[in-house]
Amino acid sequence: MSSRDVVALSVGGQRFVTRASTLQRFPQSRLARMLSNEDREFKQVNGEFFVDRDGKLFSYIMDFLRTLQVSLPADFSDYQRLRREAEFYELHTLAELLGQEHLLKPRQEILEVRFFLQEAQAFFRIFGSCSSTVEALAEQITVFTDQQLGQSWNSPFPSQKPLVPLPLERPSHHDLVFQCGTEFSAGDQFVARYVSIKPDTRKLINGTNVLGLLVDTLLGDGFRLLSTRTVASGERVECYTLERMRRPA
Length: 249
What we know:
With 249 residues, the chain is α+β, with helices and mostly antiparallel strands. The chain folds into two domains: 6-104, Potassium Channel Kv1.1, Chain A; 110-149 and 163-244, no CATH class. It has helices at 20-23, 30-35, 55-67, 79-88, 92-99, 101-104, 131-140, 207-220; strands at residues 6-11, 14-19, 43-45, 48-51, 110-118, 121-128, 141-149, 164-166, 169-172, 175-185, 189-197, 223-232, 237-244. The strands form two sheets. Strands 5, 6, 7, 8, 9, 10, 11, 12 and 13 form a nine-stranded antiparallel sheet that branches. A four-stranded mixed sheet has the order 2-1-4-3. A hairpin with a 2-residue loop joins strand 1 and strand 2. Helix 3 (55-67) packs across helix 4 (79-88) and helix 4 (79-88) packs antiparallel against helix 5. It starts with 5 loop residues before the first strand and ends in a 5-residue tail after the last strand.
């Protein structure tokens, strides 16, 4: 690569180094005309083009020139300022894209937890608008089962023998189902199901305790509780709706 192929710019005090072909991606733009000395506003100082504009916003413009995609942080809000910078450099394609702000903003991530309590058992179903979040939750949640004869059951705590992990039900990529509590099965077998949610190491059997731990885990992962409502009062189905406020680290 020759020295003519590499261009250095100082934009608002920030230095950028790129290929000449990147700046020439849109031949009618001011950045392309700058290289042919057709735009007097861009001056060369010690071999670098000096541009008295916002350097931070220019980094997004450079990213667009390199990838032909608009990739902005989830918390980005300066759409109007960035569009003004795109118009200054006469990058009309980028300016038009930034005018469609509603398409560029990240979609709100919603999570819904449904909780159904029936006698000594509790049932959970989690719906998520983001499948990767549901997948991460499925890796955090483990259900363990313990089976004993009915007459030998006298403690709400796990027995000393190893508990058997059960797979979670995954009706789709956007939801998961699990349960906890106790029930009698055929042959006078007493079945207990415990739930563990990482990073907590406890194995909980009480549905209300599991619900509290699940909500606390989601709040710690960047969600906030939007609302709670009773879906079916006769069956005591409760619904907790949460919204993502920040991305996980």
